[in-house]
Design goal:
single chain, Arc Repressor Mutant, subunit A, 3 domains, mainly alpha
Length: 143
């Protein structure tokens, strides 16, 4: 079983819960998997905090916002406090939202409410919060 865990970890880093799920799916006994993972965590081979920080850095670099990253990490089984710490040490989310808007739609402000809504939906899909979206779109005064 340690060979299976090593093979999974050789390809890429995994959070503890995801690694546990993969090993259990391969048919290993739950008690043996838990003991092995405790040992790997003790050796810092498996480290959810390190995984979350790398995940945030990589996905923020791809233009994803904190809400989407939070949801994806939670789906992987990373604890909420670990996710919160990783997101707090991440980039300036409002600046990232502005950069994504400019990259996709150009530097000009939205000309109509419909265009503003389209840009807001794009940023929402990328995982930015309402505050980040408002900051990225600028003032609410359209002619």
């Amino acid at each position: 079983m340690s060979g299976a865990a090593a093979a999974l970890l050789a390809r890429r880093d995994h959070p503890r819960a995801a690694l546990e799920r993969r090993l259990l799916e391969q048919g290993y006994e739950a008690a043996a998997v838990a003991a092995l993972l405790d040992e790997l965590v003790g050796q810092r081979v498996v480290d959810d905090a390190r995984y979350a920080e790398r995940y945030v850095g990589y996905h923020a670099g791809r233009g994803l916002g904190p809400e989407r990253i939070r949801r994806e990490l939670a789906d992987l089984g990373v604890a909420a406090d670990v996710v919160r710490a990783a997101l707090e040490s991440g980039p300036d989310w409002a600046a990232l939202a502005r950069a994504q808007r400019v990259r996709r739609f150009g530097s000009g402000a939205p000309a109509s409410w419909a265009e503003k809504g389209r840009q807001a939906r794009f940023l929402q899909y990328r995982g930015f919060s309402t505050d980040h979206i408002r900051s990225a779109l600028g003032a609410d005064d359209l002619d």
